C-alpha cells in the first residue's frame, strides 16, 4: 500500500501540488487522470523523492525498509528519458544490471527482442515510441513491486501499445501485490487496464473511483411523460428537450430510473456513457463549481 497524507509541493508562483491525500492498494492498476498541467508528473516525482515536498507524509507499505528498501521495490518510467541521453540501450542495460539487485538480463533480452530495439543506438536518437519501449524493457527487468508509468503509451504505434499492455498485465501476474500507477489521457487505456481512477485538476485530487462502478453508474436516458421534476433528482447532471422526449444524463442511473417510474414518466431508452465522456463531464462540472 502507498499512503499519501496531505502532500504539498510548491512548484513555482503559478502552480502548487496539493495538499492531497490518497491510498493506493497493492494488487491494483490505478490510472492517474487529469488535464495537461494537472500535476501528474509532479506527483510521480514527489512519490519517488526526485523533488522535495514542502509538507506531508508518504508511507510505503510493501514490506520494505523505509529508508532504503522501498526504492528497490519502486520502479519509475518518466515521460521522457532525458537523464539517459548520451547512452545506448546496451550501456543502460549494463548500468541497470549494476544498480539493481536481481535485474534480469534474460527478461531484458526477451523484451528488446519483442520490441525489436536497436541496442547500440543512443536513446535520444530513437523515436519517442521506441524510447518508451526501451525504458519499459529496462524497468520491467527489475524485481520491483510497484511500477510508476508516466504516459507510457503516448507516441507508441498500435502494435507496440498492444504489446506494452500485455507486458503490464504480465508484470501484474508476478505476484498478488504487484501494483501499477500510470498517468494517461487515453480512455481506452484506462478502460482496458485500470482498476481505479484518481482524477486530478490544477494540482488537486478531485476524487478516487472504482472504474467499473463509475462506468455502471452513468447513463444517458430518454424519457417521455411528466418530466417536471427531473432536474431535482439526485445524480441528474443535465437535461435537454429532444422533440417529444427529454434526454437526461445522470451519474446515478439505477436510482434515477426507479424515480422516473414512480413519477409516471416512461423511459424509452437507456444508453451507457463512454468512459471518456464521463471523465470529461466530471472535469467540466468541477470547473463550474470551483
Give the averaged pLDDT, no decimals: 92
How many domains comprise the coordinates? Answer: 2
Strand order of the largest sheet: 5-6-7-3-8-9
**Per DSSP, what share of the residues sits in E-state strands of 2 or more residues?**
25-35%
Q: Which outline best applies? A: elongated
CATH class of the largest domain: Alpha Beta
| Run of helices and strands | EEEHEHEHHHEHEHEEHEEEHEH
Protein name: ABC transporter ATP-binding protein
Domain ABC transporter: 2-227
Pfam family, one: ABC_tran
GO molecular function, one term: ATP hydrolysis activity
List keywords for this structure.
nucleotide-binding, Rossmann fold, ABC_transporter-like_ATP-bd, single chain, 2 domains, elongated, alpha/beta, ABC transporter ATP-binding protein
Description:
Keywords: ATP-binding, Nucleotide-binding, Transport. It comes from Alkalihalophilus pseudofirmus (strain ATCC BAA-2126 / JCM 17055 / OF4) (Bacillus pseudofirmus). Residues 2-227 form the ABC transporter domain. Helices cover 35% and strands 30% of the residues. With 290 residues, it is α/β, with parallel strands linked by helices. It folds into two domains: 2-213, P-loop containing nucleotide triphosphate hydrolases (Rossmann fold), CATH 3.40.50.300; 219-272. The chain has a six-stranded mixed sheet, sandwiched between helices. Strands 11-12-10-13 form a four-stranded antiparallel sheet. Strands 2-1-4 form a three-stranded antiparallel sheet, covered by helices on one side.
Amino acid at each position: 500500500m502507498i499512503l499519501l497524507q496531505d502532500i504539498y509541493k510548491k512548484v513555482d508562483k503559478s502552480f502548487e501540488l496539493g495538499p492531497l491525500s490518497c491510498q493506493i492498494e497493492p494488487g491494483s492498476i490505478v490510472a492517474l487522470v487529469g488535464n495537461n498541467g494537472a500535476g501528474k508528473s509532479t506527483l510521480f516525482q514527489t512519490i519517488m523523492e526526485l523533488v522535495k515536498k514542502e509538507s506531508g507524509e508518504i508511507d510505503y507499505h510493501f514490506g520494505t525498509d523505509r529508508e532504503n528498501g522501498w526504492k528497490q521495490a519502486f520502479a519509475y518510467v518518466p515521460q521522457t528519458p532525458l537523464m539517459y541521453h548520451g547512452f545506448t540501450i546496451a550501456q543502460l542495460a549494463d548500468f541497470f544490471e549494476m544498480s539493481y539487485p536481481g535485474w534480469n538480463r534474460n527478461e531484458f533480452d526477451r523484451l528488446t527482442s519483442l520490441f525489436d530495439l536497436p541496442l547500440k543506438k543512443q536513446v535520444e536518437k530513437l523515436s519517442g515510441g521506441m524510447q518508451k519501449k526501451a525504458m519499459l524493457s529496462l524497468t520491467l527487468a527489475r524485481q520491483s513491486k510497484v511500477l510508476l508509468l508516466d504516459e507510457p503509451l503516448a507516441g507508441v504505434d498500435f502494435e507496440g501499445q498492444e504489446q506494452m499492455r500485455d507486458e503490464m498485465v504480465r508484470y501484474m501476474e508476478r505476484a498478488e501485490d504487484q501494483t501499477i500507477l500510470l498517468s494517461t489521457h487515453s480512455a481506452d487505456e484506462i478502460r482496458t487496464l485500470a482498476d481505479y481512477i484518481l482524477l486530478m485538476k490544477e494540482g488537486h485530487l478531485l476524487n478516487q473511483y472504482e472504474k467499473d462502478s463509475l462506468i455502471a453508474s452513468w447513463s444517458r436516458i430518454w424519457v417521455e411523460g411528466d418530466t417536471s421534476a427531473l432536474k431535482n433528482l439526485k445524480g441528474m447532471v443535465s437535461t435537454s428537450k429532444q422533440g417529444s422526449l427529454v434526454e437526461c444524463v445522470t451519474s446515478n442511473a439505477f436510482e434515477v430510473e426507479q424515480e422516473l417510474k414512480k413519477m409516471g414518466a416512461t423511459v424509452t431508452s437507456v444508453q451507457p456513457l463512454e468512459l471518456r465522456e464521463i471523465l470529461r463531464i466530471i472535469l467540466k462540472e468541477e470547473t463550474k463549481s470551483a
